[in-house]
Amino acid sequence: MEKEKISVNQLAFQILNRLLENPNIYGVKIEKNSSGTTLIDCGIQAKGGFEAGKAVTEICLGGCGKAEITIQEYGGCTLPTVFVYTDHPAIATLGSQFAGWQIKTKDYFAIGSGPARALALKPKELYEKIAYADNWENAIVVLETSSYPPETVLQKIADDCRVENEHLYVILVPTESLAGSIQVSGRIVETGIHKLLKLGLNPNVVEYAWGYAPIMPTHPKFVRAMGRTNDAILYGGVAHYMVNHANEEMLEQIISQAVSEASESYGKPFIEIFKKANYDFYKIDPNLFAPAAITISNIKTGKTFQAGRTNSEVLKKSLELTIKT
Questions:
Q1: All domains of the chain, ordered by start, with CATH?
Q2: Which of 69, 71, 67, 45 is nearest to 56 (CA)?
Q3: pTM for the whole thing?
C-alpha cells in the first residue's frame, strides 16, 4: 500500500461503522444534530468502556494501526495495558492520531485528533514534514472533551475539513472515562515519534513501530484524571521504533534525550508537577512529554539503541495505591 493511496478517514470509517451499527455492544450513544452531523458519545452520557476505548484508539490511528488490551505488571501492581502497533508510523501517528488541533471558541474548548486532521491539515507544517494529506468525502474527528460541542463549533470543523455536515462524524471521549484513559495511553507510539521529530529525526524513516502503556483507573475529577493519563505515558510507556537511517551517530545521540527521564521535571506524579506550574502547561519543561522508555532499531545496520525506564513507584503514587496485607 503506497503512502499516497492511504486514506486515513476511509480506513477509520470501517472501524467507526462497528460503533454505529452496534452502539449497545460498545456502550456508546449515537445521535445526529439538526444539521446532520453524527455525534458518537463514548463516555459523557454513555458508558463507554474497553471496547469503545480500543475502537477509538484505532480510529485515532487512522485505521493504519491496531490496538490490543492486555495486562502488565508494574513493580508488583498489575494494570490493564494497551498495546499498539503500526506498519505506517508517520501517517498513523503524526498524520492522524496526534492531538494537534485546538477546537476553541469563546464558550467551548476541546483537543481534536484523528483522521479529520488530515483533511483540515491541522497543523499544516506537520503534514508538510511527512508529505501527506487526505482527500475523502467523510471526516472523522475525535474530541477529548467532557461536553457536547455547540452547532457553531461543528460547523467550523466541517468547513475546515471541506465536507458537508452530514459527512462529519464527531467522537466525544472525556479524559475521566475508561475509553478516554485507554485512548490516551494508546498514544504511546505517537508521543515518542513526535519527540523524535522535535529532536531532528525525519519521521518518514520510521518503518514500523509498537508500544504499550498502562490503562490508568479513572478519576472523577478532570485534573486528576488528566494527571494519571499523562503518568501512564511518562512513567509506564514503552515505545519501539524500527528505522532505516544512515546516520547511526545521530540515533545514538538523540535517544537519551527522547525519554521523559531527560526532563528536569521528571520524578513526581504529573498532578504535582502541574500544581507547581500553577496549572499552566506552558510552564512545564516540554522535555517531560515523552515515553518512559524508547528503543530504536536500525534495520539498515542491525544495531539497536535503548534509553529510559519505567517507574512503577511514581505510577503507584499517581494511583494513590493502598496495599493491604
A1: 3-319 (3.30.1030.10)
A2: 67
A3: 0.96
